Amino acid sequence: MTEHYSEKRPLRIAFDARYIRDSFGGIARYAHCLLSALAEAPGDDRFVVYFDPTLPASRFSVPELAPLPKVELRELRLGLYSPEEQFVWPGHLRRDHIDLFYSPYFALPLLADVPLVCTVHDLIFERDRNYGSGRWVRAYYRPMMWLGLRRAAGVFAVSEATRRDLAAFYGSADKVAVVSEAAAKVFRWPLGGGLLAEVRARLGLPERYLLAVGARRPHKNLGAAVRAFARIQDQVPHTLVVVGRPEERYADDVAAAVTSLAGGVRMLEIAAVAEEDLPAVYALADALVMPSLFEGFGLPALEAMACGTPVVAANRSALPEVVGDAGVLVDAIDDGALAAELLRVLSDEALRVELRRRGLARAARFSWQRSAATALGAFHKIVGRVPA
Question: For the whole model, what pTM was predicted?
């Protein structure tokens, strides 16, 4: 059987924006940035955006996209991961004359009669026993991942590392496209000195600091950042600033490591840092440390580089793909090796200047506009595919 592709025509694309909410962290950021770029991309495609106005979404707003001419908002009070959504979605998609359904996460409406596309961010549930043994994983994640990947007409992975994991764990490769993350436009260098001083004063940031950003989950390995910093604390004039939130489901390795230090660490809840302040928090830091054991992408590293901040990151999963030779990659399992690289970067101003130069160039290679163009090309190819 051969295939041919129909002439390009405007599509009506359903976008499941229920993931743009505070509890979804990086997935919410990906969904909001990609949706914004899709809505601003050239062409006449329309995006029917389904969102639940009752869900807390203080960092990213779906209604703010309403003025964009290609966006149609639809309120949909429908619980995520519920059996009900499998039966409710098909009617909504038929009513709104949808050509293709897109989800920025892995769950899909399997009974819908339109092509389906999803994004897979990572497969940590397969990689890490801390995540892979729970009831939710056994009862929902793996079955829905397996069914969704087979039902989907297309799959987006956020990195080549995630694409390889999809092939390794689920045998999916032929219909996977990499639609990477990028730093939003607000993450840039240089920022005005007045803005930097105002954010420093308002958040009480120290004069010189090492920054770590991320939810305090086991795979983020932020406890290693604290332990490594403890080894060099007496040799540098820096404070370690940790921006993130603890999660009740997991032991807090950061808090455990901090108890062994006599000061020198400042903890900031991510909710206390407004979205518009986050670029300044990056830019004011002398370096970002990201010792993750696993990342589907590693967006804080890219955001830091876009703000001119040197990066010291783990040499694992997607981080080498994101950081390349623009940062320092290290075996983050080895606290001593991590401490040595942190000391080298924090002590050497010429090195930080060079890493800033490389990081800015590296960050510029990623853009939401290019990711949106890749996604739109895939959408049109999928809808235009007609068996001959």
Answer: 0.94
